[in-house]
Write a structure and sequence with these properties.
The complex is a heterodimer of chains A (about 130) and B (about 450). Helices cover about 20% and strands about 35% of the residues of chain A. In chain A, strands 1-2-3-9-8-5 form a 6-stranded antiparallel β-sheet. Chain A has a 3-stranded antiparallel β-sheet with strand order 4-6-7. Chain A starts with 7 loop residues before the first strand and ends with a helix. In chain A, a hairpin with a 2-residue loop joins strand 2 and strand 3. Chain A is α+β, with helices and mostly antiparallel strands and about 130 residues long. The model of chain B has no long low-confidence stretch (mean pLDDT about 95). Chain B is α/β, with parallel strands linked by helices and about 450 residues long. Chain B has helices at about 10-20, 50-60, 80-90, 105-125, 135-150, 165-175, 195, 220-225, 315-320, 330-370, 390-400, 430-444; strands at about 70, 125-130, 155-160, 180-185, 205-210, 235-240, 255-260, 275-280, 295-300, 305-310, 375, 385, 405, 410, 420-425. Helix content of chain B is about 35%, strand content about 15%. The chains are: A alpha+beta (about 130), B alpha/beta (about 450). The interface between A and B is small, with 9 and 6 residues.
């Protein structure tokens, strides 16, 4: 399974891409593959404050509704509105067009607690 | 599905597996003082004819069941065609089991789907679930749904809502962060629009109105909707759904949710129910809707089939984060309503509604001629409040002696006194019944 080298990960299978003082956030290839066909993505409003480890939305597949956990704390700066009409983009391109929110980070030091690509790959090999 | 109780052998095997000698030791954690320590004091067994006689004697004590009745107030007496019970008793339907498995429950799922279709059409909204417990809990669930959808924490509730519905909303919301605010009603029995204009609509997640309301009065829903601007969810509650066979449906008047009672559609007015909660809303809110939803689809061969849909948000999958904790299967009551609606059809239902309305209008005129006064001037459906020339309790007592229940006294309810009587007239009342009631009001 592909694990891009430029991302950081959570144990709950979200990813974060640090872009200056913001982070783009989505779910991993493994997450979308486990969930199956994604039919609905519920995302927060721009301006909402989210906390690392807290939920920021939910993703619904034909099998289940799962909470989305924030990798990092901050204020929601942008939301991928295209997912409202085409949630299946998360299945097709989880690291690209399937991104979910962009967050203006309140504590960039929190990135130290996230998993590096190698560590996430190790986690996946343990889970499978 | 056959019910097979545990045999003595089963019980012995289970006890030996967990290392206990006797079933009673399972109850050791209950203080001795609270344990009964003896068998229940039951009478000896009866033969079938003895049992029938015993039950008939008990049933006869319920003398109100055979009286001419003008009782409404949330439960409406309507004729239930014999075909309904005949069909409900079919083995394919007569089960409390929830039809999760599309592979074995196509007939039940199709019946549920058709129920939803009829209810959503009747109320002019995109989707209806199947179903809720009753009108009170359906209305309370509408409030919880609005609280999921909108940020406001106030809930504006019409003072003309059935008081027991109000009580259930209070129970559902008592430990949350919602604040209930009462919208007063005016002299004509409808919501006081001037009062509504000064209420905190902008801070509300829901505005709950009742039509027909507890006094039988019909609201101008479209005008109310226009008065409730902003993003509060506009909920229309009702306990007599038959009214919407002749009134403009809530959806067409801008309602976001129609929630109320469905027992009028073929269910008996038994003490304690079962009732049937109806719940319809717009498609955009479907993911926040409580309860069960059957959907139509195609199978692998392209043939029409039915499944439960969106159940990923229900409690058997999503546990404590479920949209609601509604799980009791009301399918049999919903089926009764579907059969009822199919039997009456698109022409029959409005005709029945009109008959109810016309008989009620006749009763209004005859009771007014007998010396009572109509309490509210606004239009009504099959129920209305009369102010009697004397105490309603006296009229109830005099009527009962003549085998008649004249209605529901409203003494004790805010804004009413001991002469106010809520009178309901349905197709089960004859003009002779109405004449008898008028005579009692006039003469005592």
């Amino acid at each position: 399974m592909s694990v891009p080298a430029d991302l950081l990960f959570t144990k709950d299978h979200e990813w974060a891409r640090i872009e200056g003082d913001t982070a783009r956030i989505g779910v991993t290839h493994y997450a979308q593959d486990s969930l199956g066909e994604i039919v609905f993505v519920e995302l927060p409003e721009v301006g909402r404050t989210i906390a690392a480890g807290g939920t920021f939305g939910s993703v619904e597949s034909v099998k289940a509704v799962s909470d989305l956990f924030a990798p990092l704390s901050g204020v929601v700066a942008a939301v991928n509105k295209a997912l409202v009409d085409t949630p299946e983009t998360v299945n097709r391109d989880p690291y690209g067009d399937g991104w979910m929110i962009q967050v203006k980070l309140s504590d960039p030091a929190e990135t130290a607690a996230l998993l590096a690509p190698a560590d996430y790959e190790k986690l996946l090999s343990e889970e499978s | 599905m056959r019910y097979i109780p545990h045999t003595d052998d089963d019980i012995r095997v289970m006890l030996s597996r967990i290392g206990l000698a006797d079933v009673s030791t399972l109850f050791d954690c209950i203080p001795k003082a609270l344990q009964l320590q003896r068998d229940l004091d039951l009478p000896p067994p009866l033969s079938e004819p003895e049992l029938e006689r015993h039950l008939s004697n008990l049933a006869e004590l319920n003398d109100g069941a055979t009286m001419t009745s003008f009782l409404g107030g949330g439960a409406y007496r309507h004729h239930s065609p014999a075909a309904i019970n005949q069909l409900l008793l079919r083995g394919e339907f007569f089960t409390a089991y929830t039809p999760y498995q599309a592979e074995v429950a196509q007939g039940t799922l199709q019946a549920i789907f058709e129920f939803q279709t009829m209810i959503s059409r009747l109320f002019g909204l995109d989707v209806a679930n199947a179903s809720m417990y009753d009108g009170a809990s359906a209305t309370a669930e509408a409030v919880l749904m609005a609280a999921r959808l909108r940020k406001g924490r106030k809930v504006l509730v019409a003072g003309s809502l059935n008081p027991s519905y109000r009580a259930v909303i209070e129970t559902y919301t008592q430990f949350g962060d919602l604040e209930l605010v009462t919208i007063p009603f005016g002299a004509d029995g409808r919501i006081d629009r001037n009062a509504l204009a000064s209420m905190p609509v902008a801070e509300a997640c829901a505005v709950v109105v009742a039509s027909p309301n507890f006094f039988g009065v019909i609201e101008d829903l479209a005008a109310l909707r226009a008065a409730v601007n902003g993003d509060a969810i506009f909920v229309v509650s009702f306990s007599e759904p038959l009214a919407y066979a002749m009134l403009r449906p809530p959806g067409a008047c801008g309602a976001d949710i129609a929630a109320g009672e469905g027992a009028s559609f073929g269910l008996a007015t038994s003490f304690g129910g079962p009732y049937l909660g109806l719940f319809a809303t717009k498609k955009e809110f479907v993911r926040s809707m409580p309860g069960r939803l059957a959907g139509e689809t195609v199978d692998t061969r392209g043939e029409r089939g039915y499944v439960l849909t969106l159940s990923t948000r229900e409690q058997h999958i999503r546990r404590e984060k479920a949209t609601s904790n509604i799980c009791t299967n009301q399918a049999l009551c919903a089926l009764a309503a579907s059969i009822y609606l199919s039997l009456h059809g698109k022409a029959g239902l409005p005709a029945l509604a009109k008959l109810n309305r016309d008989l009620a209008q006749t009763a209004k005129a005859k009771l007014t001629a007998a010396g009572a006064a109509l309490r509210f001037a606004a239009p009504t459906f099959n129920e209305f409040v009369m102010r009697l020339p004397r105490s309603a309790a006296d009229v109830v007592a005099a009527s009962r002696k003549q085998g008649l229940i004249p209605g529901l006294p409203l003494a004790g309810l805010d804004g009413f006194d001991d002469r106010d009587l809520l009178v309901c007239v349905t197709e089960l009342n004859t003009t002779d019944d109405i004449d008898r009631l008028a005579r009692i009001v006039r003469e005592g």
